[in-house]
């Protein structure tokens, strides 16, 4: 056994080019949107805070996640070659699990950051110091790597049957286990244990954080304070709802999506649409990000004007007659 066959999306051949252009546009928008977030956080000193420190890692994760899944799907759609080598399939599955777990932990860290900001605003800078933020991000990367590596090592011990067709557009762990001829009970136990540790526990922590945030908001007497607290948590809560909503629909309650087509549609929502919407949610619903974008645009305009003045002065200095001649009547 040297390769698998990815059956891909249930698209008719005459619609392949249209869907290829659609997914290519979504992929480029996802990458450019998250790169813009990284640039804003990097270049704007107003965004050098714990919240945007976590957001920068989340943006980097989304770029990597989309590149792991969507790029291979686009190559298969363009070349009409559905095969993927066994090492490439295992590698894609590893990074899919790794970035999925990393998203969970980063969203949980951001929920704790929002809890401290709303419930303990006077002690926010003391609690959310650089050391704690670095520790949370480092622990997220290490735990995500360990969980994905555990599943990958357990998969490599399995043998596979003659049918190596994966009814998916990427190498999903569940789909690979269905193709195996070996005993997968240990793999299923690892999936259940990791699911509780990586999905359920972070979700519980997020719900507890927002429960405390909601209780604190209800105690605020002024409407202005309530609006400020909601604006602080609005973008993160939207991303959490979208992210965990698709996970619940795909893995926790799969009975409503028994057919291959329905599973594929939900997977596209989870791996493509969610990553596409995240930059728009963070940019459009976050006042700090919009102000940082305006400042960056203003700097770009000033820089372009300075560059134009420099080029103009250089042209006048080197060849003033030809430069002045461009402004004579009848000449452009």
Structure description:
By secondary structure, this protein is mainly α. The protein is built from eleven helices and three strands, in the order βααβαααβαααααα. A three-stranded mixed sheet has the order 2-1-3. Helix 3 runs antiparallel to helix 8.
Kindly summarize this structure in a few lines.
The protein is mostly helical and 332 residues long.
What would the keywords be for this entry?
single chain; 11 helices; 332 residues; 3-stranded mixed β-sheet; globular; mainly alpha
Strand content: under 5%
What value does the Rg take, in angstroms?
25 Å
What is the makeup of the main sheet?
3 strands, mixed
**Which sequence of strands runs across the widest sheet?**
2-1-3
The counted number of beta strands is: 3
Helix content: over 70%
The outline comes out as globular
| Helix count from the secondary structure assignment | 11
Oligomer: single chain
User: Which blocks of ≥5 consecutive residues have pLDDT under 50?
Assistant: none
Overall pLDDT level: 81
Order of helices and strands: EHHEHHHEHHHHHH
Measured distance between first and last alpha carbons? 68 Å
| SS-based class | mainly alpha
């Amino acid at each position: 056994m040297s390769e698998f066959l990815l059956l891909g999306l249930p698209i008719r051949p005459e619609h392949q080019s249209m869907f290829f252009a659609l997914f290519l546009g979504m992929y480029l928008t996802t990458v450019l949107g998250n790169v813009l977030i990284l640039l804003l956080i990097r270049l704007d000193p107003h965004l050098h805070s714990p919240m945007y420190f976590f957001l920068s890692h989340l943006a980097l994760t989304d770029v990597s996640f989309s590149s792991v899944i969507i790029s291979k799907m686009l190559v298969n759609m363009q070349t009409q070659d559905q095969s993927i080598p066994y090492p490439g399939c295992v590698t894609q599955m590893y990074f899919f699990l790794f970035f999925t777990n990393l998203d969970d932990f980063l969203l949980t860290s951001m929920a704790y950051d929002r809890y401290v900001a709303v419930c303990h605003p006077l002690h926010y800078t003391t609690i959310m110091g650089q050391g704690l933020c670095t520790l949370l991000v480092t622990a997220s990367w290490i735990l995500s790597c360990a969980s994905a590596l555990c599943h990958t090592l357990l998969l490599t011990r399995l043998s596979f049957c003659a049918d190596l067709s994966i009814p998916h557009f990427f190498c999903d762990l569940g789909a690979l286990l269905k193709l195996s001829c070996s005993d997968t009970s240990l793999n299923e136990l690892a999936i259940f244990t990791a699911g509780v540790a990586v999905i359920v526990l972070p979700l519980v922590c997020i719900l507890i954080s927002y429960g405390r945030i909601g209780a604190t908001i209800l105690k605020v007497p002024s409407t202005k304070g309530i609006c400020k607290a909601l604006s602080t948590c609005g973008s993160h809560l939207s991303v959490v709802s979208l992210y965990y909503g698709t996970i619940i629909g795909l893995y926790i309650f799969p009975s409503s999506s028994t057919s291959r087509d329905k599973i594929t549609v939900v997977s596209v929502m989870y791996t493509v649409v969610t990553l596409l919407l995240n930059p728009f949610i963070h940019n459009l619903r976050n006042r700090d990000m919009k102000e940082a974008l305006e400042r960056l645009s203003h700097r770009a305009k000033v820089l372009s004007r300075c560059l134009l003045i420099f080029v103009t002065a250089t042209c006048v200095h080197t060849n003033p007659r030809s430069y002045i001649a461009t402004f004579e009547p009848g000449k452009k």
